[in-house]
Write a structure and sequence with these properties.
about 300 residues, mainly beta, 7-stranded antiparallel beta sheet, disordered C terminus
């Protein structure tokens, strides 16, 4: 995509280690690298250069919080459990949309991590699959500055104006980013380092972006294999950088791995989350770290 003065603003790919995918970089990629470098110097844990908050799995509940679904902002084709933390589609429905109650909590800083992150942590399952089996259907996750006013005529989350997020399609094993400038500075764990788009691909991307709306421009894709029982962390930094991290059955060692990260226009304003489920997908909300005080075992 061409900017004023003839300079290219086509997003450049980065490796998960922050290595540049080309000689030129867009402004958002440079800003994210600078922020990551600052975290690497200030955060004492070398295994967490991004400064992500700790996992809540082994922490006392006093240091964590659990978001819930809003039963008033769900389509009738969806069912939620009595605690409003598990949602699934009723049989014979193809898709349904639900929003979380309130905004995502903001994590305080700690000894080995930086404050200001907002996190969505979910487990993906299906009532028809067993652990380790591939899921069918899909899931869209949206971040927006405000939720819908009511569930009447509520659109799928990827159609919400000015929202940004991603869509998982389980059978094609595909994760797609969407929203305003979704591919900016994108770095994935599935792409080779230092790969630059070919001239033909760059021209096609520019032509497509000229015709697309801000909601669908420059869509970015990466491969992902999601199975029953897999876990996802979606972390939004104070600068609007989004990291999707997964503990997937397809991973050989079963460890948390970075899947994709990209720059968004999100800020430190309140963030509301909507989900659109497809076919047999079920989503369970999980606890996230919230308190800003020292956490036992993390010092």
């Amino acid at each position: 995509m061409a900017a004023a003065g003839g300079q290219s603003t086509t997003p450049k790919l980065e490796s998960p280690l922050g290595l540049s995918g080309g000689a030129e970089e867009d402004e958002q990629t440079v800003r994210h690298r600078a922020l990551t470098a600052t975290r690497s110097r200030s955060v004492r844990d070398p295994t967490n250069p991004q400064g992500w908050p700790p996992l809540a799995d082994k922490l006392e509940r006093a240091f964590c919080c659990l978001s819930t679904f809003d039963p008033e902002l769900r389509e009738s084709c969806l069912t939620v459990d009595e605690d409003n933390v598990v949602v699934s589609l009723k049989q014979h429905y193809r898709q349904g949309t639900i929003w979380l109650h309130g905004s995502l909590p903001t994590a305080g800083g700690g000894h080995n991590w930086r404050g200001g992150w907002r996190e969505l942590n979910v487990q993906l399952t299906s009532p028809f699959e067993r652990r380790g089996e591939r899921l069918t259907g899909g899931l869209s996750v949206a971040f927006a500055s405000a939720p819908p006013q009511s569930a009447i005529d509520m659109p799928p989350v990827h159609c919400v104006p000015n929202a940004c997020g991603f869509t998982l399609q389980f059978l094609p094993k595909l994760l797609s980013l969407w929203g305003p400038n979704p591919g900016s500075g994108a770095q994935t764990a599935t792409e080779p380092q230092n790969r630059r788009a070919s001239p033909a691909a760059a021209a096609a991307a520019e032509a497509g972006a000229a015709q697309a709306t801000a909601q669908s421009a420059s869509v970015k894709h990466c491969a992902i294999h999601v199975c029953h029982g897999d876990l996802l962390r979606v972390l939004v930094s104070p600068s609007g950088w989004v990291d999707v991290v997964g503990r997937l059955a397809s991973s050989e060692d079963g460890q948390w791995r970075s899947i994709v990260g990209w720059q968004t226009p999100l800020s430190m304003d309140r963030l509301f989350v909507g989900l659109t489920l497809r076919h047999t997908t079920a989503v369970t909300l999980r606890r996230v770290y919230h308190q800003g005080d020292s956490v036992p075992g993390q010092a």
